[in-house]
Structure formats: C-alpha cells, structure tokens
Amino acid sequence: MQKRIFINNQIRSPQVRVIDQKGKQVGVVTLQEALGLARASGLDLIQVTERVDPPVCRIGEYGKYLYQLEKKAREGRKHEGGDMKEVRLTFNISKNDLETRVRQAEKFLAKGDRVRVVLPLRGRQKALEGFAREKMGLFLASVKEHSQAKVEREVKREPRGLSMIIGK
Questions:
Q1: Which of 63, 79, 101, 132 lies 20 to 30 A from 124 at CA?
Q2: Are the beta carbons of 31 and 55 closer than 8 angstroms?
Q3: pLDDT tens digits for 29-72?
Q4: C-alpha–C-alpha distance, residues 50 and 93, integer Å
Q5: 101: closest CA among 138, 151, 154?
Q6: What is the dihedral of CA 36, 41, 42, 43, to 10 degrees?
Q7: How far apart are the first and last CA of the chain?
C-alpha cells in the first residue's frame, strides 16, 4: 500500500519544518509562511514525513519528487531478491554430479541470488514422479546442510517436469 503524499493546501499541520530546494533547512515556520515561500519560488510544498512534530516539508517540484521516490523504490527492489539463477538436474543424475550442482547452487545463494531448481521429465520418467521428487529432496537436503537456504516455492509439477525455488 502506498502512503499518501500531501502537497500545498493538503497539509493540515499549523506549523512545519521547512527544507528549501537546495536542501538547506529554513526552520520551523507556520504553514502559511511555508506556502508563501514555495509560491515565491514557483514550486510546491511537499510533506516529506509526518512522523515528527512538526512535520517536515520540502520545497520542490512534486513530479520530480515522485520520480525520485519511485526510482529509490526500484533500486531497493533490484537488490532485495537478487537474480534468479537456474540449476538443472536430470532424472538419472549421479551422486557426484548432484554434489557439483549443490556447490553451484551454494555459490549462487552466497551471492544473494535465488536458485530455481529444475528437473525435466521425459517419456516414461513422468510415470516415476515419486523418484524424481526424491532426487529434488536429496538436492535440497544437501544444500540446507551446507548453507542456510530456505524453500521459497515448494516442489511443483510443471508440464515438462518438476521445479522449486530456494533462497537465502
């Protein structure tokens, strides 16, 4: 849910702490004085935070302020989950190959990436889904043994096989 940003006459506090367009603090003034300062410079009075008393307001362009907030949120989302990497297992994977895939997944998790584990099933392999789920469980147990991985999405049946997503 997005919080509402009050500008100009929408601000209801009788006194506000004002920051000018250069980032310099003007001080605590009445709302009318702050609106006058904003109008004099041809800009908006934007309420930045209401958590403090008096609330903090900035003189600036409203559209530019919204753009900067959106840009900051996008940047935060970019680093929050990391990239999605993929590790492919096979139905008849050997123990050594499984260990290699586990090490690769651990590297991805250490970098902060999420890992999508895929085990494609073909032909008669689709009838032996239980065996394939055991392979996925064995892989997950090996990864959890070496790192603090958690399952973000359980083993799920897809048209071409099984998949799950693990993260830090």
A1: 101
A2: no
A3: 888 888 888 888 888 888 888 788 888 889 988 889 889 888 88
A4: 58
A5: 138
A6: -80
A7: 26
d(CA 41, CA 126): 70
Q: Looking at residue 38, which CATH number applies to its domain?
A: 3.10.20.80
Please report whether residue 134 resides in a domain.
yes
List of E strands, the chain: 15-19, 25-30, 44-49, 56-60, 84-88, 114-120, 150-158, 161-167
Kindly write down the DSSP assignment for every residue of 103-132, as one continuous string: HHHHHHHHTT-EEEEEEE--GGGGGGHHHH
* CA separation for the pair 92, 140 (Å, rounded): 16
For residues 64 and 107, state if they share a domain.
no
pTM for the whole thing? Answer: 0.53
